[in-house]
Design a protein that fits this description.
Blueprint lengths: L15 E3 L9 E16 L7 E10 L10 E6 L1 H4 L19 H4 L3 H9 L5 H5 L4 E2 L5 E7 L3 E2 L5 E4 L2 E6 L31 H13 L1 H4 L4 E5 L5 H10 L3 E4 L10 E2 L5 E2 L22 H7 L1 E7 L5 H11 L3 E4 L23 H9 L16 E3 L7 E3 L1
Parallel strand pairs: 4-8, 10-11, 10-14, 14-15
Antiparallel strand pairs: 1-2, 2-3, 2-5, 2-6, 3-4, 6-9, 7-8, 12-13, 16-17
Protein name: Methyltransferase domain-containing protein
Organism: Corethron hystrix
């Protein structure tokens, strides 16, 4: 039986030699790897237990095993997740202690629904098709170091154990040790909603804060790095506020509005514009895209990652309001960022929020009545709005 080594370990350097009880077996090594899940597919079987296949990008690999960024197929079976969802299994009885009913009856379908999938991906997953995984999920797993490839050359990883599930990119989850910083933590209440509702909650907050009439001016709201377009659909369908989605990789489904007769249509038009380079030499003949940006009423972004600071700078340049919820700091991509007060590098979430607040016009920065303000939305996770 595999016995984990005591003490601290780091991904990519955690091989553990393991011996089987059978003397005829050769020694094998166990490695710990972490992945960003992309999509998943469920295979059910009456005779055999279900299999969950998760297409994932390697986040932290191991020498001569898997390289960072490599796309692999993780094979997750019921035995791999025993204890991972302990006490939450379907039909569990009692306290769900070790060896209890809830642990024995947990399955990969529940594991996927509870931890990996987006709410709108549950139905496709149960239907046996590929379904998109939730954003910002990191899986840390344990497996043998002998990994085979399928006919397409993709590595097949038989997961021995799911060790940990993390719901944010680890690069951006920095320790916030800045005592006295009012913006260093997120706020939750007993009425806090699940993070899957964050886009809808943000859209409603925009209307309550700025008003439907103001948001409808010009070309409407400009949603930067909006991904699936939930904010825009909510603003348009619920309040009639026009919204433009600006995203380098649109993930909106081909059909997202049911017409009631089995067919469907898009809830908004798509204007594809290929952009190569940094945009400094970009020209547009009819300037239609430029007018959409220049005439927007407000620029917003929900966890826009690299686009967070550009959203603020764009709004300041256009002279329009903005509302952004920071998430990933990514200090290695932006080493030039320095805090206004002490000149220290911006490496934590709290210092990043303060950095954005300090971009407000004037010498005092944000939260001065004339500059930027802070509000917390009622959902789990990075729920701080700077506006």
């Amino acid at each position: 039986l595999a016995k984990s080594r005591e003490g601290k370990q780091t991904d990519g350097d955690c091989r553990q030699p393991t011996m089987e009880n059978n003397d005829n077996q050769t020694p094998r090594s166990i490695v710990t790897l972490s992945f960003f899940p992309k999509r998943a597919k469920l295979f059910r079987s009456k005779r055999r237990r279900s299999l969950l296949v998760v297409e994932s990008a390697c986040r932290m690999g191991s020498r001569n095993v898997v390289s960072p960024g490599e796309i692999c197929l993780l094979h997750i079976r019921p035995g791999s997740v025993v204890g991972t969802i302990e006490g939450r299994a379907k039909g569990g009885k009692g306290g769900g202690g070790e060896g209890g009913e809830s642990v024995r009856r947990c399955d990969v379908e529940m594991f996927a629904i509870e931890h990996l999938m987006r709410p709108d991906s549950v139905a496709p997953l149960r239907g046996g098709t590929w379904a998109a995984a939730s954003e910002r999920i990191t899986l840390k797993i344990r497996t043998e170091d002998i990994i085979e490839r399928n006919r397409k050359g993709m590595r097949i990883i038989e997961v021995e154990k799911v060790l940990r599930i993390r719901e944010e990119f680890e690069e951006c989850v920095c320790d916030d040790d800045e005592d006295g910083n009012a913006y260093g933590t997120t706020t939750t209440t007993p009425t806090t909603a699940d993070k899957s509702e964050r886009h809808v909650i943000f859209a409603h907050w925009l209307v309550r804060t700025y008003g439907k009439e103001f948001l409808s001016k010009g070309s409407g709201v400009l949603d930067v790095a909006g991904g699936k377009g939930v904010i825009g659909r909510t603003l348009s369908a619920t309040y009639g506020v026009p919204c433009t989605l600006l995203d380098p990789d649109p993930r909106c489904p081909e059909v997202d509005v049911d017409d009631g007769d089995g067919r469907g249509t898009r809830s908004f038009a798509v204007l594809p514009l290929e952009l190569n380079g940094d945009g400094t030499d970009l020209t547009e003949r009819d300037d239609g895209v430029g007018n959409v940006v220049r005439r927007c009423s407000l620029v917003c972004g929900m966890h826009p990652d690299q686009a967070t600071e550009p959203i603020v700078r764009l709004a300041l340049r256009l002279g329009v309001p903005f509302a952004v919820l920071p998430c990933c700091v990514m200090p290695n991509l932006f080493p030039h960022r320095r805090q206004r007060r002490h000149g220290d590098p911006v490496r934590s979430y709290s210092s990043f929020c303060q950095y954005l607040l300090d971009m407000a016009p004037g010498d005092e920065g944000g939260e001065d009545g004339r500059g930027f303000r802070v509000c917390h939305l009622p959902f789990v996770g990075r729920n701080k709005v700077i506006y």
